[in-house]
Amino acid sequence: MRTERGFDRLVNFSDAVVAIAITLLILPLVETATEVSGKPIDELLVEDGPRLLVFVISFAVIGRFWLAHHGMFEKIVDYNRATLWINLLWLLTIVFLPFPTELIAVSGHDDPTTTALYVGTMAATSLTAVWQQFEFVRHPELQAEAVRGTLRMAPSLIMAGMMLVVLVLVVLFPSGGLFWLFVLLLSTPLQIIEKRMHARRTAVVPGSEA
Amino acid sequence: MRTERGFDRLVNFSDAVVAIAITLLILPLVETATEVSGKPIDELLVEDGPRLLVFVISFAVIGRFWLAHHGMFEKIVDYNRATLWINLLWLLTIVFLPFPTELIAVSGHDDPTTTALYVGTMAATSLTAVWQQFEFVRHPELQAEAVRGTLRMAPSLIMAGMMLVVLVLVVLFPSGGLFWLFVLLLSTPLQIIEKRMHARRTAVVPGSEA
Amino acid sequence: MRTERGFDRLVNFSDAVVAIAITLLILPLVETATEVSGKPIDELLVEDGPRLLVFVISFAVIGRFWLAHHGMFEKIVDYNRATLWINLLWLLTIVFLPFPTELIAVSGHDDPTTTALYVGTMAATSLTAVWQQFEFVRHPELQAEAVRGTLRMAPSLIMAGMMLVVLVLVVLFPSGGLFWLFVLLLSTPLQIIEKRMHARRTAVVPGSEA
Amino acid sequence: MRTERGFDRLVNFSDAVVAIAITLLILPLVETATEVSGKPIDELLVEDGPRLLVFVISFAVIGRFWLAHHGMFEKIVDYNRATLWINLLWLLTIVFLPFPTELIAVSGHDDPTTTALYVGTMAATSLTAVWQQFEFVRHPELQAEAVRGTLRMAPSLIMAGMMLVVLVLVVLFPSGGLFWLFVLLLSTPLQIIEKRMHARRTAVVPGSEA
Fold it and tell me: Which of C9, C28, C111 comes nearest D34 by C-beta?
C-alpha cells in the first residue's frame, strides 16, 4: 500500500539526512577551534583557510544536490519499492561526503587519491540521481499529471557527465586540485542549450522550467 | 485527544531520529581523517577498510529498518499511548546502534562479544518492531480502512526470527564475523513464500504488496 | 500574521531539535569506543556500565518530555509570540541536557553538584512546560475547539512539583544518586488521582484522556 | 514546476538545518565534560562559565534568526529559483556560527578578531535575510493573498543595520566584548516605532502584526 503520507516521508527523510550531513561539515572546524587554545586567532584563521574553503565547497555541493533532488521530486507524486532503495543509495553518498571533505581539509587538495575520492563521491551521487530519474521516467504513474510523459533524462545525464569529466581531470592533472570543480559551472548553460535544442526538435514544449 | 497532526508528529519524530542516527555513522570516519594528518591517504584508506565496511553495513541496516517502519506505518492512520512508548523503545535501539558499530570499527568483527552486541542490538530493533506490529494488529481502529483486519504478524516475525538466527550464528561461529548477516538476505524470499502460502490458504488477498 | 503552516513549523522545529538532542546522547559512548582500541571489549562494557545507564535514563527523560510536549500540543491549534519564545526556552533546556548527562557519565552520580545540575535541568524543562501550558490556558483562542476552556494546569504542575521534590532529594541525600528519579514514577498515578478528583468535583468531564 | 510540497520542503529543510546547528552548540561543552575526568565539578563549572555564556548567547541568536525566518515566511506561499539559493546562503551563515562560537568559548571575547568574526557571521545572516525579503517584496506573486503588496523592507533593514552597528562597536571598542550585543535589544522598539510612523504616513494599515 502506498499513501501520500508515505511519499511525504520519503521526501522528509531525505531532507532530514541532507540537512544533517550539510550541518556536520562544520564539526571538524569547530574541533580545530577547540584544540588550538593558545594560538592567536589570526594565525589560526590563516591556517584554517583551506578547511574553510573545502567547507564552503562541500556545503555548496550538497546544497546543489539537494536543489536537484528538490527539482526532480517537484514533478513526482508517488514512489515504488525501487525508488525507495535508490533514494537510500543516494543518501549514502551524501552522508559519506563529510569523510573525503575532512581528508582534503587535513591533507590539502593536491593529492590525486584524496581529490579523486572527493570528486568520485560526488560522481556517485550524480549517477544515483540519474538512476532515480531513470526509474521515474520509466514509470509515468509516479509522475505528476501535468508533466506525465514529458520527463527526460538529458538534464541529469549532463550533470553526471560533467562530474565524470571533472573526475578524469583531477586524476590526470592533480595540480589543478579542486579548481577543476569550476568546470561544473558549465552544466547549467549546457542544460539550457540542450533544452532549447530539444524544444526546437519537438516544436511544442509543455511548461517544464524547474 | 488524538489528532492527525499528533500522528504525523510521531512519524516525523521517528524519521528525524533515524535520519540523525544514520548520518552520525560517518562521524568516527571523519575523526580518523582528522587524526592521521601525516599518513599517506592510500595507506589510511586501506587501514580504514574495515571501518568503511561496517559503516556501509550499519547504514544499510538502519536504512532497512527505516523501510520496514515506513512500510508498517503505510497501513496505520492513528496511534495510542502504548504505540508512542513502543516507538520510543524502537528509536532507542536505533540510536544505540552507532555504539556497537564503532566497537566493531575499532576492534574488528571476529570478537564474539562485540559482534553479539552489534547483532543483538539489531535483534532488539526487530523485536520492538514485532511488538509495535502486534499492538497495531490488536487495535484495528488504528489501521487504515482499506486494510482493516488484514494486518498480520508473519512478516515482522520472519524478520525478527532471522535476526535471532544470525545472533546465534555469530556467537557459535565467531569466525564468520559479520558475514553471517548475509543470512538476512533470505528474509525477503521467506516473506514472499509465506505470503503466497497465506494467500493460497485464504484464497482471496486484498491488495497488500509493498 | 499566523498561518497553520507557521504552527506546523513551531511543532516540527521542536521535534527536530528534540530528535537531535536525544540522538546526540550516544556520541560520548561512541567516543569511548574509539579511544580504547587495545582493551578487551568485555572490560570496556563493564567500565562503560554507568555511561550506558545514564544514556538510557537521559533518553527516557527526553523521550518523556517529548511525549508531554506532544500531548500538550494535541489540544492546541494556534500560537502567539509568547509561546514561540517559551518554546525556544523549553528547547534550550532540552539541548542542554547532554552536558550534565556527560558530567554524570564521567564522574558518577554520587556527586551532589553534578546530580543537582542534571535534575535541575530537568526541573527547568518541567517549569518551562508549566509556563507554556499556562500561556495556552490563558488564551482559549489557541486551543482546539473540542477542548476550548477545559485545559488545566494540574497535570503539568504535578510533573514539575515531582521534579522539584527529586531535586531536593538528590541535594539532601546525594548517596541515593539518580535512583531518586524513580520517585518520578509516582507522577502518572498522581495525575490520574487528581484527574478523578477533578472529575468528581465537576461531575461532567469532556473527553480529555491522553 | 513549483508545487506546495516544494515550498514546504524549502521551509522544512531550513527548519531541520537550523535545528541541527542550534543543537550542535552543546557538543563542545559535552567534550570539555568528557576530558576533565579528574577535576572537581564545581571547578569545572566555574571554568566553563564563559563557554556556558556563549552557548546561551549563540542559542538565543540562532533562535532569534529562526523566529525572523518563521515570521517572514508566514506571509509567503511560493518560491522561485533565486529564493532557493538565497535561503541556502542564509543556512550557510547559520551552519557556520558554531565555529566562531567555539573560538570565543576557547579564547574569550576580548579579542577583536574573534568577536568580529562572530558578530560578522550574524551580520551576514541578517544581510542574507534582507536579500531574501527583497526578493519577496519584488515578487508579489510569492506573497500570501492577504498581504500581497504590503510587504516592506524596513523591519529587516533595521535588524541588519543594528547588527552592523554592533559589528563596528566590537571592532572599535573590543573591551566591551559580547556585551555590545545588548544593543540589539533596541531593534524591536525601533521596529515598532518605524511601524507606527509608517502607519501614520499611510493612514490605513492592513493587519500586519507579526
Answer: C28
SS3 B171: helix
Q: Residue C76, SS3?
A: strand
CA distance B189 to B195: 10
pLDDT in tens, chain B (210 residues): 788 889 999 999 999 999 999 999 998 888 888 776 667 777 777 877 888 888 999 999 999 999 999 999 999 999 999 999 999 999 999 999 999 998 888 877 778 888 899 999 999 999 999 999 999 999 999 999 998 988 999 889 999 999 999 999 998 988 888 888 888 888 888 988 998 998 888 765 455 444
Q: Are B135 and B83 in contact (CB under 8 A)?
A: yes
Q: Which one-letter amino acid corresponds to residue C72? A: M
C-alpha cell, B141: 481502529
- In terms of phi and psi (left: phi > 0; alpha: psi -120 to 50; beta: otherwise), the region of D79 is beta
Domain ranges of chain D: 4-202
* pLDDT value for A121: 95
**Closest approach of chain A CAs to the CA of D69, in angstroms?**
17
Closest residue on chain B to A110 (Cα): B41
Instruction: Out of A27, A34, A146, name the one closest to residue D1 (CB).
Output: A146
- D-chain residue closest to C21, CA distance: D23
C126 CA to centre of own chain: 6
Written in H, E and C, the secondary structure of chain A is CCCHHHHHHHHHHHHHHHHHHHHHCCHHHHHHHHHCCCCCHHHHHHHCHHHHHHHHHHHHHHHHHHHHHHHHHCCECCCCHHHHHHHHHHHHHHHHCHHHHHHHHHHCCCCHHHHHHHHHHHHHHHHHHHHHHHHHHHCHHHECHHHCCCCCCHHHHHHHHHHHHHHHHHHHCHHHHHHHHHHHHHHHHHHHHHHHHHHHHHCCCCCCCC
Whole-Å CA distances, D178 to B110, D148, D174: 53, 39, 9
Q: Does A34 contact D106 at a Cβ distance shorter than 8 Å? A: yes
Confidence band, pLDDT 50/70/90 cuts, at residue A200: confident
Question: What is d(CA A192, CA A158) in angstroms, rounded to the nearest whole number?
Answer: 11
Taking only the tens place, the pLDDT of each residue in D52-81 is: 888 999 999 999 999 999 999 999 999 999
- Nearest-angstrom CA–CA distance, A131 and B117: 36
Neighbours of chain B (3+ CB pairs under 8 A): A, C
With the CA atoms of C100, C105, C111 and C112 taken in that order, what torsion angle do they form, in degrees rounded to the nearest 10?
Answer: 30
pLDDT digits (tens, 9 = 90+) for D113-142: 889 999 999 999 999 999 999 999 999 999
